[in-house]
Design a protein that fits this description.
binds nicotinamide-adenine-dinucleotide; about 40% helix; 2 domains; 8-stranded mixed β-sheet; about 300 residues; oxidoreductase activity; single chain; SDR_fam; alpha/beta; Rossmann fold
Length: about 300
């Protein structure tokens, strides 16, 4: 019996990349899957429901159960329809994986209003919109006395948790998604909902286009363990989705065979005064603190990426 037997899942952006791998693994583990995908370009333009439908066809050909949805996660009514599709088709909703995403990278000084708004819209508002409608259903079920484990899995990024130059829009959205996950885990616990997010790294059309990274990611193709393969991300997502999992409120970093647990913003040093600081007094007291902030990422892939950047 699969780890997701009888569970109903919605996966946004499930037509390609990571979302497609999540959908295929979820179905193989016994879940009934609503594969959502707008089917647009990597920058968010256009739409094509065949992206979601082709994954549904793959799943059904393997004997699984799935249905396609082509709504945009940014559309409030579309997000409502997406959640309703799960309930109307499969009778319930246990798992929501917010994964849909686009990229419109630009240095802050050159970024246009549209580049900022569109990325915030898909990632931050899109994650909120679908979660909001799912939460309404989960609250109603809990109020009826149904005590079933529900799992929300959001997709953050190292870009938001560590800060990636060129991604003011995307990084801000992804940091916001990590915060939204923590809040959801606290607010929705009473409705039996666990909430976690992942910060993945894998070869997809989004990373293939990243200068320097795209080339490195193809080097493992054909090797015994293709560590950049997008399917490497999905076992963690399936684990977080499974009924037996107890994790909530966490962010995980996942790439290849590495799965790391993040600790959120943590106060690591402090100065104290019994009265209000003067500016000069505070300057003197904080002199020992590092002038420049650094974020730490461990693991052999991170070390390799650092070396590639010449750090
Ligand atoms: N690939 C990585 O290394 C990496 C790293 C960090 C975070 N992520 C995140 O993982 C998620 C999946 O990205 P991917 O790398 O698989 O890219 P991808 O482009 O292969 O897949 C993203 C999918 O989302 C869909 N989508 C975009 N906008 C949508 C919308 N408004 N409504 C519904 N669907 C929409 C796209 O059509 C696409 O099929 C994204 O949130 C991305 O930011 C990926």
């Amino acid at each position: 019996m699969g780890s997701l037997e009888g569970r109903v899942a919605v996966i946004t952006g499930g037509g390609r990349g990571l979302g497609r791998e999540h959908a295929l693994l979820f179905a193989a583990e016994g879940a009934k899957v609503v594969v959502n995908d707008l089917g647009g370009s990597a920058e968010g333009g256009g739409s094509d429901v065949s992206a979601a439908q082709s994954v549904v066809d793959e799943i059904t050909a393997l004997g699984g159960e799935a249905v396609a949805n082509g709504d945009s996660v940014t559309d409030w009514e579309g997000a409502r329809r997406l959640i309703a599709t799960a309930i109307d088709t499969f009778g319930d909703l246990h798992i929501l994986v917010n994964n849909a995403g686009i990229l419109r990278d630009r240095l802050l000084v050159n970024m246009s209003e549209d580049e900022f708004d569109s990325v915030i819209n898909v990632h931050l508002k899109g994650t909120f919109a679908v979660t909001r409608h799912a939460a309404e259903y989960w609250r109603a079920e809990a109020k009826k006395g149904v005590e079933i484990d529900r799992s929300l899995i959001n997709t953050s990024s190292g870009s938001g948790l560590h800060g990636n130059p060129g991604q003011t829009n995307y990084g801000a959205a992804k940091a916001g998604i990590a915060a939204m996950t923590q809040i959801a885990s606290k607010e929705l616990e009473r409705y039996h909902v666990r909430a976690n997010c992942i910060a993945p790294v894998a070869r997809t059309r989004l990373t293939e286009a990243t200068p320097g990274l795209g080339q490195v990611m193809t080097e493992t193709i054909g090797s015994d363990f293709d560590s950049w393969h997008p399917a490497n991300i999905s076992p963690l997502v399936a684990l977080l989705a499974s009924e037996k999992c107890e994790f909530t409120g966490h962010a995980f970093r996942v790439m290849g065979g590495e799965v790391g647990l993040y600790q959120g913003w943590t106060v690591v040093d402090q100065v104290e005064s019994d009265s209000r600081w003067t500016v000069e007094g505070l300057a003197a007291a904080t002199k020992h603190m590092p002038a420049k902030a650094e974020s730490k990422v461990s693991g052999k892939h991170a070390e390799k990426a650092k070396a590639n950047r010449g750090e």
